[in-house]
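Re: your question from the hallway

Yes, I did run it. Sequences:
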Amino acid sequence: MAENTVRTVAELVTPCDAGAHVVACAFLGSETIFANGEGEIVFASGKRVAAHPNAAILEAASDGERIVTCGDDGRVVATDEAGTSETLAEIKNKWIDHVALGPDGAMAWSAGKTAFVRTKKGEKTLEVPSTVGGLAFAPKGFRLAVSHYNGVSLWFPNSDAKPDPLLWKGSHLCARFSPDGKFLITTMQEPALHGWRIDDKKDMRMSGYPARIRSFNFSHDGKWLATSGAEAVVMWPFQSKDGPMGKEPKMLAPAREGSRVSCVASHPSRDALAVGYTDGMVMMVRVNDAAEIIVRGPEGGEVTALGWHENGLQLAYGTDEGKAGVLNL
Amino acid sequence: MSDKIPVTVLTGYLGAGKTTLLNRILSEPHGKKYAVIVNEFGEIGIDNDLIVGADEEVFEMNNGCVCCTVRGDLIRIIDGLLKRKGKFDGILVETTGLADPAPVAQTFFVDETVSGKTALDAVVTVVDAKWLKDRLRDAPEAKNQIAFADVIVLNKTDLVTPDELKDVELRIRAINPFAKIHKTSRSAVALDDVLSQGAFDLDRILAIEPHFLEGGHHHHDEDVQSFSFSTDKPLDPKTFFAWIDNVSQIQGPNILRAKGILSFKDDDERYVMQGVHMMFEGDHQRAWHADEKRESRLVFIGRDLNEKALREGFEGCVAK
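Structure:
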């Protein structure tokens, strides 16, 4: 499709200044917020909350009521719609690299080789063989995936049993379950994804990327896994019980020359996704016919965060230069 | 390359004076702010919110090649530091005394984010003038650290006689004739000699020690060799990249360090490259100056290198 025929909705975007490298976008009530690399929670309405003073936010998770951030100041902080921050955990002289939110108010975080889980009943820890690369709660059952070098530990914090190991050589970073809980996917240090079918631990390797995959997520119905790291969005089919094994991925929304897909966010209810690129462009693309709509032109900065409101009518983006915006459909 | 954050890697065997040097870099009023990645928090006597503890986690990449190892913790830390871009001018990485510098250096080649946003400025090795010769006998790491260095801080020179010092210097030169050596005691080296080096700057080495790069002259260590090749005839880029790729595949495990400044046919820009084991990277650096001799120079430091094959290969890259 020639570029000049692509529709644009850029006029529906309200740009805002997120101050610094945008780590995550989220929607709290009627507020759109951005967590940045200088430890701030920046509200699209203008309010700024120093959640991690003199520190960087490394990761964030949100349940729609609060955003929980972890930082290189060794703290986990929750900030709500009113801008009130509360320290939930603190470890001196350590970075808290990862944070995840689970069912019934459960929360997990990690520092170095230790993963922590806190529930209403209390707190538990798990030591893994190397630094935790990522954390993910399973959609069903109280189970936490803790990724690390050479695999993932599937931990059942409510049981005293040893974590169930999923093994694959190499360094595993971000982890994510499919919506039905049947698959677990990790991004790896090399430009590849690894996946396991949980039932039989069958391996699946998804490779061929030119760059490390920093962003990936499942479509709302779990049929596709959208991934960054290439010149186009690489969509792995997960319709069958074998996942993407033996199947070709679908390529969508190719980047402009010299640019790559840096961020993806599947729409919460439709077969569409938002795509961010290393040249700052943001697009929406429909999965079935690859129709594209421009949200933001290639205005510079690398898109580092994208987030849909659960109503599917608002999309927030942010770049590594602190530029951000909200699309209202 | 100019907007990349410079990274200085500080190596040195146990007790050589690394921490003293690091403390000096952090406390002297040079007007720059460094993010510092250390092994032991306690040894750094300076309060700095950008000091990060590392775990020295060496990871193999999944291609199964043992020499393609990286420091996973460094990638993670640099990813994190990059979120605070603009808050510091450079990154210092301290390694433990027993560490092989290769995985640290390779980290700056292999990971796309790290190599895209940061550049290895120099590997600085602190060496103990009094005990180096013993270490070279009993600790292979000590020799690797010297072979890898762009800058060597020859420390504790007050503890040896001038003759002993000369002898130590010759030993260092036998392993690595290309590094700059600064003699000092109590790590009191001028910080300008350690930071902002630009590891590519072979010109300076030429100016200081011209004979080291003349006609492939090489010195002898028992197992570490160094070679340099040069030509004033422009190279054919296609032939050269195919050749260097092949060299990295075949001789890579034995190459500790490689560096080059290259002049390609019909190309008015200097091309600079460096490599560690099987990983090589390069880029156009700047335009050749009008009064500058357009020459290609390539140096290798390694073990069991096939000099004849390297020389003939290099000479075969001259544009027809």
